[in-house]
Recover the amino acids of this structure.
């Protein structure tokens, strides 16, 4: 590479920890719908009662296994369209994951005109 090719702010390292499934966990009815939740209790209540979600946590841990447990509870298998449907219908603004927030911030720096908030 040429010396001086990159300038400040042109590169970012983003670590997805623990898994990308962490990004889908937003407490909305749409997530429960996409995961085909049909339990007697609200999805997040079930997660908490079954040890997947700590009392003050916003996301279950570990997220991938929690998603698999929810799907198993409803006799479903994970399929790619679930991620797309959640991404298409749940606002990214509600995601609190630090890696996701960093990714959004970098996309704004790289691709948004000054004084806008949209990626």
């Amino acid at each position: 590479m040429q010396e001086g090719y990159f300038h400040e702010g042109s590169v970012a390292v983003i670590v997805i920890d623990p898994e990308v499934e962490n990004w889908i966990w937003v407490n909305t009815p749409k997530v429960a719908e996409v995961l085909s939740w049909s339990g007697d209790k609200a999805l997040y209540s079930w997660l908490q009662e079954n040890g997947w979600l700590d009392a003050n946590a916003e996301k279950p841990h570990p997220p991938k296994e929690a998603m698999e447990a929810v799907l198993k509870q409803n006799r479903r298998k994970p399929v790619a369209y679930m991620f797309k449907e959640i991404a298409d219908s749940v606002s990214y603004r509600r995601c609190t994951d630090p890696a996701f927030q960093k990714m959004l911030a970098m996309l704004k720096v790289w691709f948004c005109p000054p004084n806008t908030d949209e990626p």
